[in-house]
Design goal:
Two copies of one chain form a homodimer. Chain A has 205 residues and is an alpha/beta fold. Chain A has seven helices and six strands, in the order H-H-H-E-E-E-H-E-H-E-H-E-H. The first copy, chain A, has two domains: 49 residues, Helicase, Ruva Protein, domain 3 (Orthogonal Bundle); 114 residues, Dna Topoisomerase Vi A Subunit, Chain: A, domain 2 (3-Layer(aba) Sandwich). The radius of gyration of chain A is 22 Å and the shape is globular.
Chain lengths: 205, 205
């Protein structure tokens, strides 16, 4: 059945374009917005529009930024010869939260996914090659998801990066810290056995 | 950790105000919007802003409408002496889809919920009373959810409507059509036994 209001219909249609939001949920969101003050909804609408219109990407690492050079790339204490390649800003945040990485990042903006029509040229791969051609990069760490798309992208980058003079590494895969063995999926457990390494005390070094 | 972009932070904050959307999901939605064309996001943002700014409510039934009188209230074939009271536009759509109701509606815009600070005056109850005072309404059907809030609202309206000359009815509660008895919750099954009625063939009448 068509809705009694074209305005409502359009808002529901637009909200339903968001990933994971069906028409039923979109209607719930629209009715919630209708219950708010006009200026509140204007602020909501404005924040979304400005995000896309005024967004800036760091000219070095391609991360979302408010200035031409992001705060990480502009930080003189970061190790400039070490670059960690990630899919998007969420991975930067996740790695920063570990406090274990002191180098710079390179944000691809996605992973290669033929199913979704995403090829290497849709990602910031050219900018990564440029960084390797310009500076003295010692190591590139591939920190992409352990999925088919992540693996494909890692494979592609590894080939493109060979001969550029930098060591290409990838983050370790294995059982999670705090995990029981019987909770781990077979693929991960199998791989963690294949890639076993000399004993090392967890607390030490 | 603070995000590297205030624009992104604001958009995520706003998206996270939507019901059922946490900050993690809001970030996913923001990154999805960033991948779209500028004009697509502008259309999204505009649809949300216009919904709230230009929304109109039917002067009779208070349903969301594009004109001062909604298409149901303006339809001469509807029975004007029969009013079905519902919570919001979703219930109107649901009941219209049954093709079982030929009267008019009255949309309350919510239900009484002291926990959420919603009292009778926050709903379109005064407009309902006005309709009863004006016209010759024969029957008011209360079609509110079978929840504590729905029951409270039905109780309140029943009291307010007594003495207005109309019969006050409520939609039937019982086991669902097509439902197995062992799938039904105890409260519903118990009530369907207490409110049993003379045998009537489901197909017939």
């Amino acid at each position: 059945m068509a809705l009694s209001s074209a305005l409502l219909e359009q808002a529901v249609d637009q909200l339903a374009t968001l990933p994971g939001i069906g028409r039923r949920t979109a209607m719930r969101l629209a009715l919630d917005l209708l219950r708010r003050e006009v200026h509140e909804v204007a602020r909501f609408s404005e924040a979304v529009r400005r995000l896309r219109e005024e967004v800036m990407y760091c000219r070095e690492c391609c991360n979302i930024s408010d200035s031409p050079l992001c705060s990480i790339c502009a930080d003189p204490r970061r190790e400039r010869s070490l670059i960690c390649v990630v899919e998007d800003i969420r991975d930067v945040i996740a790695i920063e939260n570990t406090l274990q990485f002191k180098g710079l990042y390179h944000v691809l903006g996605g992973v290669i996914s033929p199913m979704d029509g995403v090829g290497p040229d849709d990602l910031h791969t050219a900018e990564l090659m440029q960084r390797l051609d310009q500076g003295d990069v010692r190591e590139v760490v591939l920190a992409l998801g352990a999925t088919l798309e992540g693996d494909t992208t890692s494979f592609y980058l590894h080939r493109k990066l060979s001969g550029k003079g930098a060591v290409v590494t990838m983050i370790a895969r294995g059982i999670s810290i705090g995990g029981d063995l019987d909770q781990v999926d077979e693929a991960t457990l199998g791989r963690s056995i294949l890639e076993r390494k000399p004993y090392q005390h967890a607390m030490g070094q």
